[in-house]
Known about the structure:
6-stranded parallel beta sheet; 5-stranded mixed beta sheet; elongated; 276 residues; 19% strand
Amino acid sequence: MKPKVKKVINENNDFQRAEVIKRNREKRNRYQEFFVEGVKPINFALEHNWKIRSFLYTKEKPLSGWALEILKNSTADSHFELPWKLMEKLSDKEEETSELIAVVKMAENNLSRIRIKKDLLVVVFDRPSSHGNLGALIRSCEALKADGLIITGHAVDLYDPRTIRASMGTLFAVPTLRFPSHHELMPWFQWLRRELPAFQIIGSTAKADRLAEEVDFTRPTVLLIGNETFGLSNSYKEICDSFCRIPMYGGITSFNVACAASIILYEIDRQRRKIL
């Protein structure tokens, strides 16, 4: 079925819904939709078959071949044609207003989205407090073949436009879930131990005795990453099989959390490539 095309000439209900989804976390969760702009994020969303609720655009300026092709092949529910001034108001891009904005349906928040395999690698990020760090870690997970990312605790919003922008759209490529606390993961961890006898939970902390290179990461692994300020919670520390750290030689006492996690993910990939 072709998308329904609606012309929006003022800040009506259709416009207001897109605008509130962009800025309001509570409304995003209520509608189970989120705001996406940028060529790479939209391409990732389409490539990985996320459901597009609507596209917003204007015909007051010529659309690129990229945008025209997307609209031509769109399976969205609706297309909204806006005046240029309303597209400018919606867009977060500083230098040039986006020519195409998407409203996308949230993915199911279910652990079944993470494919279980013998070389499983899942990252758990507890209480991330920075959209930039969360988005950067999602990028690293996509680049270094993590099977999923799980966010727990009081955290920045996974579906905030700032997170999506920082992830460069890789959010759509990496199964990323969010849960209130570690409690929701405990049955899953127990099940993984039964299904994958070599399964391990490794915590990242600057106080660990072992370096990352000294841990056997060829085993199926969940890597725990703590909050930027407070590190791993005691609840997570209690379930770890081991801990690892990254060597530091300067006067600083810690790495940026996304940087540290990326270094460990690279070490995991390095070890696994050696056995191929």
